[in-house]
Amino acid sequence: MRLENKIAIVTGAASGLGKAMAELFVAEGAKVVYSDIYDAPVDLTIDAEKAIYVKCDVAKREEVATLIQKAIEKFGALDIMINNAGVGTTGSILDVKDDVWEKTIGVNLSGTFYGSQLAAQVMKEKGIKGSIVNLSSILGTVGLPGTVAYCASKGGVVQLTHAAALDLASYGIRVNAIAPGFILTNMTKGMLNNDSFNKLVTGNTPLGYVGEANDIAYAALYLASDEAKYVTGTILHVDGGWTAR
Ligand SMILES: NC(=O)c1ccc[n+]([C@@H]2O[C@H](COP(=O)([O-])OP(=O)(O)OC[C@H]3O[C@@H](n4cnc5c(N)ncnc54)[C@H](O)[C@@H]3O)[C@@H](O)[C@H]2O)c1
Q1: What is the CB < 6 Å shell around ligand 1?
Q2: Which domains does the chain have, with CATH numbers?
């Protein structure tokens, strides 16, 4: 198994990409802390031998600190931190409201910052050559009209990943990001169920179709595992070719 003896936290694990990653990690031998903003998510079936659920709002530093502390208390270490929790928001530069901007940056960028910093501090202190994986997006590299706060937050995740990888390389801690294209999840189903938007997406995706959650989970599995021991500071685009154009 590819994650034998590894301990992982996955934020935003109650649905979509986070849930797929957490389930794949358990199947590959990891002990996993599923985390999300809900008290008790309805859809999760967790094997208590291999996983626990911890509520955490990633936009709050103290909650992320408690999440990491609970992972250490339960499993004794932290090898893998997946900063996946995120919100999708709309609004153009002409009309996006401050509250939407602040929420988007707070969850997507500050949440990734808290998770990366607090995980890295624990890994350094314990001498763990850990792996931090952040969720950016194709919209961290290219724009999409009407999504200015989301694009800014995901562009921030790209540069946070580059800079943190350099800060942490001497400790053997790796930091990478995944930049998914359009994947069918709760975040995107409203947009993708709209015929004209769906056509826009498939028309701009060289492979010609929308991705599935496991396409991202397998990328996370690689970056989290020792197979990627020489990979740090990388933004892995899993986007059907969207950003190759
Ligand atoms: N689905 C896509 O097409 C796509 C593309 C590019 C990037 N992404 C990114 O992938 C990540 C996962 O998205 P998804 O598509 O699975 O969406 P999703 O909505 O299915 O899952 C996101 C999860 O994050 C949780 N969450 C939201 N705010 C939170 C907070 N403050 N604290 C803790 N948890 C919180 C939600 O409750 C939800 O369970 C996000 O960062 C998203 O921006 C998704």
Answers
A1: 11-12, 14-18, 36-37, 56-59, 84-88, 107, 135, 137, 180, 182-183, 185-188
A2: 7-244 (3.40.50.720)
